[in-house]
Amino acid sequence: MKSSSLLAIFAHLPQWMAPAKSFTRSSFAVRQRATQNQNSLTISKANPRDDLPKVAIIGGGIAGLSCAAQLAKSGKVRPTVFDTGRLRPGGRCSSRLPGDVLKQGSNSDSILQSCVVDHAAQMIKVSAEDKGPFSEKMKDWEQRGIVRQYPRGSICEVLNSNNEPFGLVALNEDQRTTFYYGSNGMGEIPRAIAEDTSFEIQQDVWVSPSNGVQYLGNKDGIGRPQWRLKAKGQTLGTFDRLVIAHNGKCADRLMSQTPAKDLHSLLQVNFAPTVPAWGGKKMTLNSIYSLIFAVRKDSSNFGKIIPKNAISLFIKNEPTLGLLSCNTRKYPTRQESPYEIWTLLSSPKYAKANKGPQENLPQELVERVTHDMLAAVERAFGVDEGSISSTVIESRLQLWGAAVPINTWSGGSPGFLYDGTFGVGACGDWLLQPSIEGAWESGRRLANWILKEKVNLGEDSTVGLPSQGGKFERVKTANGIASFENKERATA
């Protein structure tokens, strides 16, 4: 087929999407590679579609993957996701799988590595009243075995009790709310998004915050701007559109030297456990410590004090803690294990007061925080001091420095941002609701907006920026790890 014929076929598309070269039958495929690490995710390229407009997506969490999948499904553009994850994409919706090699190259945590471990997000909550696209996606994933429902009564709150040291209240006993988890870890969800549609993901890529993003200008004068990306001094490529699908200091710095000042102003971030009632001036993220630890079933108090059917517990009677969840109860191994492996999440207030350098926590800080969190578990369940900590065989502490948004940008925002003058957008749960659903929906909406963008760039395709109004609002339920508050927003 001749190029002129193809241009006629694409005439109904926005002009920046018109192909520059002749059509070739090819695609990007995401697949699992059989290597020394069976859990790694890599990309298979077969005659890449260089004729399609290119969209760079920085961030391989749920928002970035959802945006890429929606763009790729259209067949009109070629998205590439750049993710800092060493093994797999997913952001906070990721899991450590058996056999994963630790970043330090050590395999000393032999027990912790024997089980699937969710170290951040633990579950997804869907209300019976929710009939939207995400609810339908969850039903599809459940039918395909990607997610499973928590058994009824297995999610509880740990509360103060007048008659006992603590009381348990089940949160999922009725049919009004369903809680899901990944069938092989929460990382099954980003894996499903990545593998459902063909697009490119580049893992373990850190786009330089200082000079990794450069706006090259509108090269052809017909609505086709160019962005150049760099990592470790190497050029990753030039792209027709740019999507920022993560937040924190790096996102702020990435865009700080670009002309997209209006969008950059919303990426500036504050770190705190709370925001004022009126919402605050900046995006605000909390911090959370994640402690993974293993105990022997026959010597731990957990088997005596926590019912066997309880899997995840929101701790409401101890200010140091947020959630306790048993990985081995969620993901039992084929052979009965003598160990239970738990994920313990701190409260944002405690993490803020005891924060350290995320990538290199001092050993003294690791030991102190680990002691504090285990001691808080003992207080929450009313057992003797040291009766739980003394039974811990292995443990591993991580600081989730930029954890969950506790305010969201609202007003004129439809759940994403887009600057039509420079061809750059942003998506994430901080633009909708702090949850996996919020991230997924934000990415999907931004992709739809890019696909129907006007022929000419400019203010007519700009949406959600401060110049158009809007404000930050405090989120009443800002857990983000396991629950969320539904918010009504316009659908793009």
Can you characterise this structure?
- The chain has helices spanning 3-9, 62-74, 133-143, 188-196, 249-256, 261-267, 302-305, 327-330, 348-353, 363-380, 436-451; strands at residues 27-32, 41-46, 54-58, 78-82, 95-96, 117-118, 124-127, 147-149, 155-159, 167-170, 177-182, 200-202, 213-218, 225-231, 234-239, 241-244, 269-271, 283-285, 288-296, 312-315, 321-326, 339-346, 392-400, 407-410, 417-419, 424-426, 471-474.
- The protein is an alpha+beta fold and 492 residues long.
- It folds into two domains: 3-88 and 189-283 and 407-474, FAD/NAD(P)-binding domain (3-Layer(bba) Sandwich), CATH 3.50.50.60; 99-186 and 288-400, Polyamine Oxidase, Chain A, domain 2 (Alpha-Beta Complex).
- The strands form eight sheets. The chain has a seven-stranded mixed beta sheet.
- The radius of gyration is 23 Å and the shape is globular.
- Mean pLDDT is 83; it is low at 1-13, 19-47 and 483-492.
Q: Which CATH class of the largest domain applies here?
A: Alpha Beta
Low-confidence stretches: 1-13, 19-47, 483-492
CATH homologous superfamily designation of the largest domain: FAD/NAD(P)-binding domain
Major beta-sheet overview: 7 strands, mixed
The radius of gyration is: 23 Å
Summed up, the domain count is 2
| Portion in strands | 25-35%
Outline: globular
CATH architecture of the largest domain: 3-Layer(bba) Sandwich
